[in-house]
Every structure is written in C-alpha cells, then in structure tokens.
Amino acid sequence: xxxxxxxxxxxxxxxxxxxxxxxxxxxxxxxxxxxxxxxxxxxxxxxxxxxxxxxxxxxxxxxxxxxxxxxxxxxxxxxxxxxxxxxxxxxxxxxxxxxxxxxxxxxxxxxxxxxxxxxxxxxxxxxxxxxxxxxxxxxxxxxxxxxxxxxxxxxxxxxxxxxxxxxxxxxxxxxxxxxxxxxxxxxxxxxxxxxxxxxxxxxxxxxxxxxxxxxxxxxxxxxxxxxxxxxxxxxxxxxxxxxxxxxxxxxxxxxxxxxxxxxxxxxxxxxxxxxxxxxxxxxxxxxxxxxxxxxxxxxxxxxxxxxxxxxxxxxxxxxxxxxxxxxxxxxxxxxxxxxxxxxxxxxxxxxxxxxxxxxxxxxxxxxxxxxxxxxxxxxxxxxxxxxxxxxxxxxxxxxxxx
Length: 402
Hints:
The protein is an alpha/beta fold and 402 residues long. It folds into 2 domains: 6-231, no CATH class; 239-398, Rossmann fold, CATH 3.40.50. Helix content is 37%, strand content 16%. It contains 12 helices and 12 strands. The chain has helices at residues 6-21, 23-28, 54-57, 62-77, 89-106, 126-136, 157-162, 193-214, 221-233, 235-245, 290-307, 346-354; strands at residues 33-36, 43-45, 49-52, 179-180, 250-256, 268-271, 275-283, 309-317, 321-328, 361-366, 381-385, 395-398. α5 packs across α6. The longest helix has 22 residues, at 193-214. It is elongated, with a radius of gyration of 24 Å. Mean pLDDT is 79; it is low at 139-165 and 249-253.
C-alpha cells in the first residue's frame, strides 16, 4: 500500500479544519477525490476529482490551503463544470473565480494574495461576468469559442478545459488559484450532465442543512445559489446572442482578430459600427413581475451599450399601445410600465408601421399570452418570454426562472 505523502496529509488536515470551522464547504469536499497531478499548475476539478499540484500546495499556509479547497469545491457546487457551453475556457475560468471569491471572503476564509476579486461582480453569475469581460475585451459577444481553436500555449483549448483521464490540463489564468474543468463525458463510469447536476444539488442542500445546524451558514450563500440557479437557464446569453445576430457586422484590418495573432495569422476582426433604430415592447398586462422587469432592463442596457443604436422606442402595451418613450443615442433606458388590460401584440407592429419605422430589431418582454398578427413583419422579432407559450414567428428567449 502506497504511503501518504506530506502534501496529501496537509490536504487532509485542511479538509478536517473546513469540516469543523466551515461545515458547508467541508462537507461538500467529501464528493471530490484528491489526485496529485503535475500537469495542473494549481488545483482543478471536473466535479469528480480534485487535482492538485504538490508544488503549488506547498506555497500555501494552512489557512490559505483551506480557502483554496473551498474555492475549488464551489465550482461544481455552482455547476461551473457543466455550464461552459462553448465559451472560451480561460475567460470562463476567470468569470467563475470572480463569482466564487466574494462568497469565500465574506465567509471569513483566507485566500492567497492576488486572487480574482472585484466588488462590481458581487451577486452576479459566471455567465453575466463572462459577458461583461468579453465586452470589455472588445470582442464580439455573440461569437462562441471556436471548436479546435488553440490556446496560448499552443494546445487545443477544448483539451485545456477538459483534459483527459490520464493527464488533465487547465488554461493558465492570472490570479487563478483553482481551475474548473469540463465535466467528463458520460460513460459507464461517469454520470450524465443531468445526473451530475442533480447529485450536486442534493449535496449542496445537504451541506447547507449541516451548516445551518452548526450555526455556520456562509454569508450570502442563498443569494449565490439563487443566482446560479437563474443562470442555468442562461436567458441573458440567449437574448444577447439572438439580438446581436440581428445587427449587421463588417470586418476591418484596422482591428485584427486577437484570437489568431499568437499563431502569426493577421486576420480582420469583427466591427459593429452601431445600428439604426431599435424597438422594445413591454407587456403591461400584469404578467411580468418587477424582478423580471429589472433583470430585463439591466440586460437591455448592457446590450445597447455595445450596439449603440441611433434611437430606441419603448412601447408599453396591453390591448393597445398605452405609452411610447423615445431614447436618443447614449440615453439611459428606464422601463416604467403603464396599463394592465388584456394583451394584443398587433398594435405594437401597427404603431411602428403607421410611423414608417423599420427597426433593426423589435424585442418583446411578455408572457406570450395574447393574440398575434396574421403575418410576421419584415424585421427580426425577439420574445423574452416569462411564460411557457410559443410564438408563431421570431425567436423566443425563455426567462421564466429569472
């Protein structure tokens, strides 16, 4: 039988300390099996194993080792290992770290110096943070990570994110102390994504119960878990992608595609010079909650900040268009519904037609319970839906969990 290494004993001791002092994180760690791994620079998890580099562990004192273990287990606890969905692995790791670290700091855990921590990301899901980081980086938010694209060290980025059973690897991130790998592909030994999500949900609920009985529930835990549950629906990403798909784009050699510069390829980058007019229609029949309205408003602002439309028309409607607000380029949009009768979508299209307005996009916030016009318009229509109904045309973005 192989003897336990000093590093492994340190990790076991840190696990025990977490169970006693921070039972929520400590009990969750029982789901991860420790595996020494030299191909990982720090720590990483795929939701089944906790890979650690002994050299990295030895740089941590007892308190920061415990905090780093707690950081790592929160990745699968928040389903980060099954939610990347084609996003760039490196930026996804950064976004996930920004989502996790405030919870750990607020819980009183010690983390290594230089971690990814920014108060402006507090309460945000990894998906929201990722979108902001991508926008700030000046890249096209509607472009997914390309399959087969190589990472900074010349290896395949998908392989960096998921690795393999024998030699997992993770993208290097500045300030990253524990990486999240994609969940293993399901087989006889590995459960499906749905099964993993269900098992981790059970584990999180059990851990929260244990922490509650011990009187040591982490501050902000419920808010963090609720945010993760909402993000699983990922309506924000769907809305952003479908919306930006309606915006005409061009390519420019003045703004090269940075994804390929490291290979020596100088390719043109996507340039969006802004759009003309955009219309937003808000269902005032009473089916949209205040919370859903605020979430939708925040996402619309974020999208429009990047799209830079010349003018935005906001139509408040029920059976008729009750009020219209017009915003010029750069003005901050605030949604204040009026009305409250039945719902008909036709009057919104008629209002635009009567004034000769051909919007780049018409976006509805509605539960989709109402009567539709007989034929679709010539411009794209998006339905951010708080209900479960279908639309006869356009793209439906479900945001029921928001």
